[in-house]
């Protein structure tokens, strides 16, 4: 599968800049900008090319028949968005249940243009005591750029400003939403 993914990835003209820290077994991976459903298959291709297990969350409705088996097979975890339990706490506990758990999240929380990132990913990493790994989804350059693991300090505003610098001038599939 990896060879097929690599063939498709390079045929589409994409490249990877940086090295994924595969020795880090638990982390929150933030991929941005998230502007299109195309991000999903490009993320799957990227993950296959670097040959690293990365999970993602999806609304539980996506995990019903006929596609539920597929989303689980590719590392998806269903999330009940309407449960009254604190989602940050629930997701942070997932890290305790796995020896290796790298969770990909979109800091925007949507494919629409946003002025401010959601902070859930940050507080999940802080609570689970895991680093945040920034990865660009730059459709302009056709590049996934891998940053360095960033350990949240608890100063959310300062840490977010620092993380957002990594994504400066990165173009999503639909630049008007970036």
TrEMBL record:
Pathway: Lipid metabolism. Residues 28-140 form the Phospholipid/glycerol acyltransferase domain. It comes from the Bacteria. GO terms for biological process: phosphatidic acid biosynthetic process. The keyword Ubl conjugation does not apply. One of its GO terms (molecular function) is 1-acylglycerol-3-phosphate O-acyltransferase activity. Keywords: Acyltransferase, Transferase. SMART domains: PlsC (SM00563). This is 1-acyl-sn-glycerol-3-phosphate acyltransferase. It comes from Leeuwenhoekiella palythoae. The lineage of its organism: Bacteria, Pseudomonadati, Bacteroidota, Flavobacteriia, Flavobacteriales.
């Amino acid at each position: 599968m990896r060879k097929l993914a690599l063939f498709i990835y390079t045929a589409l003209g994409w490249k990877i800049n940086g090295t994924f820290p595969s020795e880090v077994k638990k982390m929150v991976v933030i991929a941005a900008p998230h502007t299109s459903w195309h991000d999903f298959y490009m993320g799957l291709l990227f993950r296959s090319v670097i040959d690293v297990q990365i999970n993602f969350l999806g609304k539980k409705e996506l995990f019903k028949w006929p596609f539920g088996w597929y989303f689980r097979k590719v590392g998806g975890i269903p999330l009940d968005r309407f449960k009254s339990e604190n989602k940050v706490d629930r997701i942070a506990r997932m890290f305790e249940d796995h020896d290796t758990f790298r969770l990909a999240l979109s800091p925007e929380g949507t494919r629409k243009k946003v002025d401010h990132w959601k902070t859930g990913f940050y507080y999940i990493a802080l609570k689970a005591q895991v680093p945040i790994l920034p990865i660009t989804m730059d459709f302009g350059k056709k590049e996934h750029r891998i940053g360095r693991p960033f350990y949240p300090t608890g100063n959310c505003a300062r840490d977010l400003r620092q993380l957002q610098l990594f994504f400066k001038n990165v173009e999503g599939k639909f630049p008007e939403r970036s």
